[in-house]
From TrEMBL:
Keywords: Hydrolase. Transmembrane segments: none annotated. GO terms for molecular function: nucleoside triphosphate diphosphatase activity. This is Nucleotide pyrophosphohydrolase. PANTHER family: DCTP PYROPHOSPHATASE 1 (PTHR46523). It comes from Sedimenticola selenatireducens. Coiled coil: none annotated.
Length: 123
């Protein structure tokens, strides 16, 4: 993250809501449509990494890095719009999810091991 970034999710949400309203696009921004657009943008992000090695994925050219940044921005935009339409506080939801993950994946049990939570039940 960049320390120069001062926009909050609330500020981004307000700007995106204004953008949509000025274009009369809220009529198209149902949770279903936004979720579909979100997954399409996720697929576009994945395309940038599809045939790269692990090492190559860490060493993107400046041009590729900018393309990836813009795909990530699209994902964030659709996620914020979906949350707005469903009246979901993304920060609060993320905090709840982190707490759940901390419980499901205790550091002393899963350190250095990337299995799914249900795969640890056998131990």
């Amino acid at each position: 993250m960049n320390e120069k970034t001062t926009d909050s999710l609330a500020q981004l949400n307000a700007r995106l809501l204004d953008f949509a309203r000025k274009r009369d696009w809220e009529q198209f921004h149902s949770p279903k449509n936004l979720a579909m657009a979100l997954i399409a943008e996720c697929a576009e992000l994945v395309e940038h990494f599809q045939w790269l090695s692990e090492e190559q994925s860490h060493q993107l050219s400046p041009e590729k890095r900018e393309q990836v940044a813009l795909e990530m921005a699209d994902i964030l935009i659709y996620l914020i719009r979906t949350a707005e339409r469903l009246d979901i506080d993304l920060i609060a939801a993320a905090q709840r999810k982190i707490a759940i993950n901390e419980s499901r994946y205790p550091a002393d049990k899963v350190y250095g091991d990337a299995r799914r939570a249900d795969e640890y039940d056998d131990e």
